[in-house]
């Protein structure tokens, strides 16, 4: 059995990861904010884990920002972020794409100087158990 399983929102793409994650970062750079449409990306990194596509590999699209190392893999049907293996062989897995529980917490917020102006003291914002009425 694999260490982690994941999928896209529509379920077309499914994957498994064998091995441990080395780092877990919440990245606030402008590229990651554009990728996610949110305050930050939550990505897991591993130099040794292996990725296996279970289904839908032919439905994966990849975007590489020219003249950078920034790569984004996603489901061509639903747009969900998916794992990718970078040129240096390092595996990058969007934490939200995992279907199995993750026993580790983020190591750090990175590129905090680039964070969105509204991303400050979010723990003070009201929390609701579901969709607002």
How would you characterize the overall build of this protein?
With about 130 residues, this protein is mostly beta strands. It has a single domain, classed as Metal Binding Protein, Guanine Nucleotide Exchange Factor, Chain A (Beta Complex). About 5% of the residues lie in helices and about 35% in strands. The protein contains one helix and eleven strands. It has a five-stranded mixed β-sheet. Strands 1-2-5 form a three-stranded antiparallel β-sheet, with no helix packed on it. A hairpin with a 6-residue loop joins β6 and β7. The longest helix has 7 residues. The radius of gyration is 15 Å and the shape is globular.
- C-alpha-based Rg, rounded: 15 Å
Side by side, the strands of the main sheet go: 9-10-4-3-11
Query: Hey, roughly how much beta strand do the residues contain?
Result: 35-45%
Helicity, as a percent range: under 10%
Secondary-structure element string? EEEHEEEEEEEE
Overall 3D shape: globular
Q: Output the CATH topology.
A: Metal Binding Protein, Guanine Nucleotide Exchange Factor, Chain A
End-to-end separation in angstroms reads: 41 Å
Mean pLDDT: 93
Question: How many distinct helices?
Answer: 1
Structural class: mainly beta
Instruction: Give the tally of β-strands.
Output: 11
Q: How many domains, in number, for the residues?
A: 1
Oligomer: single chain
């Amino acid at each position: 059995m694999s260490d982690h399983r994941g999928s896209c929102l529509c379920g077309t793409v499914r994957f498994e990861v064998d091995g441990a994650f080395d780092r877990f970062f919440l990245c606030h750079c402008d590229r990651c904010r554009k990728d996610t449409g949110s305050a930050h990306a939550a990505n897991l990194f591993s130099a040794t884990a292996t990725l296996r596509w279970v289904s839908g590999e032919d439905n994966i699209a990849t975007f590489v920002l020219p003249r950078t190392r920034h790569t984004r893999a996603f489901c061509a049907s639903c747009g969900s972020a998916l794992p990718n293996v970078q040129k240096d062989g390092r595996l990058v897995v969007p934490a939200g794409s995992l279907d199995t529980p993750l026993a580790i917490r983020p190591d750090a917020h990175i590129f905090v100087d680039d964070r969105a102006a509204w991303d400050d003291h979010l723990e003070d914002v009201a929390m609701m158990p579901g969709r607002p009425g």
